[in-house]
Amino acid sequence: KSPYLLFTNRHEIRRIDLVKRDYSQVVSTQKNAVALDLDVANNRVFWCDRFHRKIYSAFIHEASDPSQQVPLVDSSLQTPVGLALDWLQHNLYWTDSGDKSISVSSVDGTKRRVLISSDLSEPRAIALDPHHGFMYWSDWGTRAKIEKAGMNGVDRQILVSENIEWPNGITLDVANRRLYWVDSKLHLIASVDLNGAHRRTHMSSAERLGHPYALAVFEDRIYWTDRDKAAVFMANRLTGQDIQALAENLNDPHDVVVFHQLRQPPGPDSCNMGSVANGGCEYLCLKAPQITEHSPKYTCACPDGQDLGPDMRGCVPAAPRDDLTVRSPPTSGLTPDTRETAAEGIAPSSGGVSLADDVPYVTVAPSPSPEFLTPLSTLQPLSSQESESLGSHSMATAMVMSTTSAGDSSVSQHSGGKNFVLGENLTVAVLGVVIPIVPIVATVVFGLVCAGVYLVWRNWRHNSTKSMNFDNPVYRKTTGEGEEDEIHIGRTDTMGHHVHHHPYPQGVSMGVVGAGGGTCPQFIALPLGGSMPDAGTHWYTEQPMLSTAK
What we know:
Blueprint: E1 4-8, E2 13-17, E3 23-27, E4 33-39, E5 44-49, E6 54-59, E7 70-73, E8 80-86, E9 91-96, E10 101-106, E11 112-116, E12 123-129, E13 134-139, E14 145-150, E15 157-160, E16 167-173, E17 178-183, E18 188-193, E19 200-204, E20 212-218, E21 221-226, E22 231-236, E23 244-247, E24 256-259, E25 284-287, E26 298-301, E27 306-308, E28 315-317, E29 324-327, H1 336-343, E30 361-364, H2 384-392, E31 398-400, E32 419-421, H3 427-464, E33 512-513, E34 519-520
Parallel strand pairs: 31-32
Antiparallel strand pairs: 1-2, 1-24, 2-3, 4-5, 5-6, 6-7, 8-9, 9-10, 10-11, 12-13, 13-14, 14-15, 16-17, 17-18, 18-19, 20-21, 21-22, 22-23, 25-26, 27-28, 29-30, 33-34
């Protein structure tokens, strides 16, 4: 058969034959179809409707009939934006930018599990390599990157993290072992090998690549959708030339895939190679990454809230975690839909009010009997994967105490992204003691700083004040009792008219005869003290005789 394209056009899915250039409608009456993938061997199409928050499936020749469109996953979806089919193990993978997770389900949608829910900001496109057991996805969030992990969620690594902004679409060239992506902000199409090396830019032009969203590669051609130009284009994969428009004047094109047998080469189903169906797994059987020749072919997985048993195939209930429950405060802006998803521990969609900023109320759930409480010494610590998953979960998370006995090591402590085991980590207990003390310590430190500043200022003021100390006894005035401690110094010739303030006894005249014959007033400093023979007399007993003539 000749290859053809399938692409979403918001309210429909259309088909373009790449040889005959026939143009037809495959799926109609959609609200917001954004992502799709194919099962070439069974002639089926899968797609996500972002408005209905569901994943649908239909046979291509019957997809135009709404009654034949079967919803596979119709619950606990927030914003499904990427979709990929494992055509060998028959599992369906998708990204959800609403609850920031990557999930997997059986092809009929009856079994599902969240694989990755940590360190995801804005997951978008996803692509699979089921022959080697790896999945690839793009994240256009704060730290844009393209990552890779096993299809069972392990061995995660970053392929591209530099010179990348908005990697909206990715696709695999399985034959040439390369990964292609479009960057809507940098206006380019680039590729790397499946280890993240040998990077190459195939096209880079803001004029030719307005807002590329998704792409597909087949043989020597590359196909992409452009939301700014509302069209689907193709070009030479090797040279980036020979650009042609395959469909124009579209409504809002998003995803695009190529339908052809070479796009999904056949291979063994690792979960059904032996006589035991589904690999002996009770629930999901997922392809394991083939890192070495000794790597396991598959991994069993259990639904959220359950863990693998000792045989690593059966599922057992996870350790009880109902000692603490999270109750979000009522919010007037919540719609019934968002209130329901909040009760399930899932962040509401963009149409509602986000609960990421709400502070949860932690209440203690009643225990059926006292013996279910486990001593603190038997609590188990978190695994590194659970710690990472809690860091990026959009809901507020409460710590819960594990009731698993210390000796039971077969039960995995998977938290499911909602709560986690306190274990031996006493950080919260320490913070509960430290936080109330912080204001007191701050107040004391502030008081000490103020006191120190005041003392420094007072010392500086004291040192900067200028003072005069007169040690000459002529100018020293001592404090004593009686009139004999008073000193009156003046000029006799100029103060004669002050009869009430004679500094000397009457009849005493003092003067200094100068060279010019004039008389200059003379000041006399008399010693103080109480050593006078007669306290009733003045400082001297007889008239002083001074001669100052030269």
